User: Fold this.
Amino acid sequence: MHMEKYLILNTLSYPVLSLIMLVPLVGALISLVIKNETYLKILGLLVTLLTLVLSLPLFTCFDLHTAKYQFAELRAWFPLLKLHYVVGVDGISVLLVLLTTFIMPFCILCSWRYIKKRMGEFIFVTLVMEAAMIGVFISLNTVLFYICWEAMLIPMFLLIAVWGGARKDYASIKFFLYTLCGSIFLLVAIVALYIKTGTFFIPALMDQEFSFAYQMWIFLACALAFAIKIPMYPLHTWLPAAHVEAPTAGSVILASILLKMGGYGFLRFCLPMAPAATIYCMPYLIALSLISIIFGGYLALGQTDIKKLIAYSSVGHMGFVTLGIFLLNDQGLKGAILQMINHGITTGGLFIMVGMIYERTHSREIADNSALGMVMPIYVTFLGIFCLSSLAFPGTNSFVGEFLVLFGAFKKSVVVGFLAIPGAILAAAYMLRLLQRMVWADSDGHAHHHDEAVGDGHAHKLDDLSFRELSMVVVLAIFVFWIGLYPAPLLNIMDASVTHLLHQISVGGSVVPVDPHSGHQALLELGNWCKQMMTF
Amino acid sequence: MQAMLILPELVLIATVLVLFAASLKKIKGTTLTVIALAGTFLTLVATVLSISASGTIFAGAYQVDTLSQLIKFLLGGGLFLIFVMCRDLSGIEEEMQNEFFFFLSLSTLGLMMMSSAVELLTILVCLEISSYALYVVISFRKGEGRRTEVEAGIKYVLFGAAATGISLFGISYIFGLTHSTYLVDISAQLPNLIQHQSMAVIGMVLMLCSFFYKLAMFPMHAWTPDIYQGASNETTTFIATLPKVGAAALLIRLISMTGPGVTEFTWVLVVLAVLSMSFGNLAALVQDDIKRLLAYSSIAHAGYMMIGLLSGNQLGMAAVIYYIAGYVLMNLACFVVIYYIAPRGENITFEDLKGLYRRSPILAFTLAAGAFGMAGIPPTVGFTGKFVIFTAALEKGFYGLVVIAMVNAAVSAFYYLKLVRAVYCQGEEGAVEKIELGIGVKVFGFFLIAAIILVGIMPQGLMSMADQAVAALL
Assistant:
């Protein structure tokens, strides 16, 4: 087994990938012995910032001209099963690693006052979470991938179950069991691949030529896990519950990073390992993506709870991501990856904004938080920026991603393109409705008077953003506009890897013939129908 | 130097005799604890020293090989850890404390000998030594009414006696077919017999019943919840761990005799494994008493281990040894919490676990590590064990079985999660009584947490030893 031919070993002065996974873990251990709450928060912030700084060379020293896995490390781990500790990043995963290290300091900052109990455990859980998430994106070995994938469940479960809202029990257990059930078949697929090929090494698994029937099994087993995680209609029901009950940091982690793992899984497992099955299943997944886009947007339109609205909007946005992925063309894939980053920044920002207003009014209902424009001008300015970004307004980051996906869709088929358009319109509708109510007034024109008694009779004034809060949203807003106006650096990074991925699919998809008599007759007919629609 | 071969057994026999003498002298308190701990520690050292010993003694009935020595190490280590954990014996009648140490050491001796026994009658005698000692210990529980513990004791005797009877019946079939009680002779003929003689399949299944009983495997599982509930917390800790190690070792020896092929016998085991997992997990979902919950979960774990055994390949058998070692650690992690939450030795329910993180953070973390481990969530030893077992089963093509097992693991996650939720997410309000723990208990808890995680992410050491151990058998 020549593993080195897929890798460019790390040439930096320190093992960057292992280190950014280890630093949060060490920080978590240190947090166990500190008692003072302020020190704990500072520790959490310093550790996440240190991880961010350590991960910056991934961006600056990244070789744009290769699709190999860079900064790689290779060590023996469990020789009995020919298992190696092997990590590395390509143009797709490096962006997600950077997104993770970039978002985590915000998770600590936005909890500064939001988390009122058990601060030590909160910092511990958050840092363990960061290590596991980075592990998912950097591992080039299916077992390490699965270990990190599953290990994430424990801290996320605790984040929701301990610091969550009123229905935290229901939401946390639903989240845990839903995701666990999805991963069952992923593990079976991982082991089945090992038994067939004798390796757990992901790049080597991509180079195999499996029979069509085998590819179908692998594809379906993996796709189930990833479709739950991303989440794709009809497997999305855990998401609104988890989002609404989770504390702000939990919502941010969920929206910004966890959901991306579904998309990353599709790109890393399904597409390159089962290309023929991917091409075969493409129509159904495009159909499900379109349903997610429209269904998510439609549900978001009817929500009165801000967090729920954003949660359903995430279902719609992730629908764009899966649509882009399964268009299987250059624009679609690039748009999808960019959209994952954008969604991480924008929706992360929105959840942080919701958390801020919740700290002030103790309500997430739109009706209780209306007409803030008079009292909190800075807050609503940034809310406006993130809302416009979320509806893909030109000049913001999401516009570029969504535009690329739609471009790819129209290139593939006019029908798909036109079906995706209502999703974009719905996004404008629910986001502008949210913005209108929160900034100006209720629909009947009456504005709440926040300076007077609110809710439980305590008179409290709504302060505008503090320095800490302002610094968070300013940084996020800079990225919103930077990616919106100049996305080239990100697109350049993913370019070689996306090209390589498309090459893998076209080669792998053409070698293995689709066998129409392998027991998928009904699916095939449906697929033909979809294909006819798409070639229209 | 044949005596050196059985060094661990000799040291443990000496310990047993010293404890017996101490019970005649009515030695109590610290002296007794020191004797018990020193004896078991020396046994542990002896198992380490003789880990690479090999040879055959007692006219070929007693074989010292890598498998037996590894199992003896696990048994010695387990017994030492149990004595360290329960050294106060707060749940045992005052006047019985001496006998408690004595009988548990004796039972472990039986298990150690069983792991080396390669002749059917020797196996049976060793099995009875380990069982009879336990029959007595169960009713040592402190309490007023003494009804549940006596009930538990009698149930254990009756089920045990029935299981032994069934096993003897099975042995008679095997002896009739092969004209030998030596495993060497039997294993030469058995693969052929199993394929052509349904009598051999019936005989083997019946013979295994005693070990199913020890492992709490369906259909010999019925005693488990009542005994776990009725016996004192100390005794349950023992019953939940060491006899299962012994039973797993013997099952490896006996099932490996049937050869690598997938036969009717394998399918019988498949059915038993599925029933064991499904019944155990479903019944555990509705339990309120933590020990009853762990009892049902142990039935489920017996099913997971059976998957490794019935795979019949080297990886599966080695994974069973790894799994049982991890299972001992995870069980100890759960029982140390039960033991220290209940200072008077009572049974605990979910109600008692609420808010444990405020009463004792280290106990809470230990229980969480044990529960997540048993649920098979990485990075714990429970995950790695399941992973390797399932890999072995898939190598043999048991796809359906592995999917059923994985679904079971997901079901079991629910009740393990209920434990963690009670510990960390409930009982946040109101005053609580802190649990005062000595430094020893804290170190013990940290040791278990570290072991569960480290053995889980670095399985190579234990797995390669287990691999060597089973390589000789296949």
Strands of chain A lie at 7-9, 69-78, 83-89. The interface with chain B takes residues 77-81, 117, 121, 143, 146-148, 150-151, 153-154, 157-158, 161-162, 168-169, 172-173, 176-177, 180-181, 184-185, 187-188, 191-192, 194-195 of chain A (CB under 8 Å). Confidence is low (pLDDT under 50) at residues 451-459 of chain A.
